[in-house]
Design a protein that fits this description.
single chain, 321 residues, mainly beta, Methylamine Dehydrogenase, Chain H, 4-stranded antiparallel beta sheet, 27 strands, 47% strand, disordered C terminus
Length: 321
């Protein structure tokens, strides 16, 4: 019996590499590169890291590839899907995804993931003022949120046209809650996380103020698996905000360095906050009142996208408490 798998990490280097994160929080390492089809060029890890959406040379659609501790399955094409994505957003449980192609101006929803994928919505967003900046999709694939560069949030139900549901200053992240038609959006300009309740019915909103002076750059917003909390991170801050929604309360935990992602691992209340195994990585976990961060050392000798190689692993300074 092999080591437990916490999740996976994808390298932006060429050729593409995927490695498993082996062990347990506090004693985790990266495994060897998994064998991949030579044609595979990009991979988008779904929440829980059971599968990935993948692209490849000479492949006309995006595919689904299952992730195993020592291998990756051959991709299964999603009929009718676009071939190359500029943005991918998964639902909280990974059962649906939104896929955007800036080149073609198409935005698609893929439902039934990972076993019975189908394109359930296909719309033209080339005329959307400000372009699509962020997306979020519900687990059943029936509700899609798309945020524009002009601070407007649009909603599409099933395959219906986009309708304006919210206006802000600088929308930077959004998510649905697991198995619900409730969502949340973070407005970096106003420092607000707004809960949008029942987006497919009688929509109502509830803002929660977040001290956001350091929340600059890319932002990520994720829900806890029980839907009681939200986790907010930004590439410009070394703090993750924990936003409890009943009752409303905002807490934070310090990281050793600013995050580069907030990607849900196989334990759904654990998140990878780094993106590449050539650098030291951190895992953030939260279980109710207790939140922690755990270190994962870099792979010695691995090359990054510039061809530079890592030396002996260095242990970053621990996070502040």
């Amino acid at each position: 019996m092999g080591e437990p798998v916490l999740g996976f990490v994808v390298s932006e280097s060429r050729p593409l590499e995927i490695r498993a994160i082996l062990g347990v929080p506090g004693a985790a390492t990266f495994g060897s590169p998994l064998p991949l089809p030579e044609t595979m060029t990009r991979a988008y890890l779904a929440p829980g890291h059971r599968y990935a959406l993948v692209e490849g040379r000479g492949i006309e659609t995006i595919g689904v590839a299952a992730l195993f501790p020592t291998t990756v399955s051959a991709p299964v094409s999603i009929e009718g899907s676009i071939a190359s994505a500029d943005m991918v957003a998964f639902s909280p449980l990974g059962s649906s995804a939104a896929i955007l192609s800036q080149k073609t101006g198409r935005l698609q929803v893929v439902a039934g993931l990972p076993d019975q994928p189908r394109v359930s919505a296909d719309m033209n967003v080339s005329d959307l003022a400000g372009g699509v900046k962020l997306m979020a999709v519900s687990d059943d694939g029936g509700a899609l949120l798309a945020g524009s560069g002009e601070g407007r949030l649009y909603l599409a139900l099933s395959n219906a046209p986009l309708q304006l549901v919210y206006s802000g200053a600088d929308l930077s992240a959004a998510t649905f809650f697991p198995q619900r038609n409730d969502a949340a959006v973070f407005d970096q300009g106003d420092g607000l996380v707004t809960i949008l309740q029942d987006v497919s019915g009688f929509l109502s909103s509830r803002p929660i103020a977040v001290e956001a002076s350091d929340l600059v750059g890319s932002s990520w917003l994720q829900s806890s698996i029980n839907g009681r909390s939200l986790f907010l991170a930004s590439s410009g801050s070394n703090r993750i905000r924990i936003i409890d929604t009943n009752p409303d309360r905002v807490r934070s935990i310090d990281l050793a360095e600013p995050p580069a992602s907030l990607n849900p691992l196989r334990n759904r209340n654990s998140f990878l906050v780094s993106v590449d195994f050539v650098q030291p990585n951190w895992i953030f976990t939260s279980n109710g009142e207790e939140s922690q961060t755990f270190f994962v050392p870099a792979v010695v000798g691995a090359s990054n996208s510039s061809g530079d190689r890592t030396g002996p692993p260095r242990r970053p300074r621990p996070p502040k408490r």
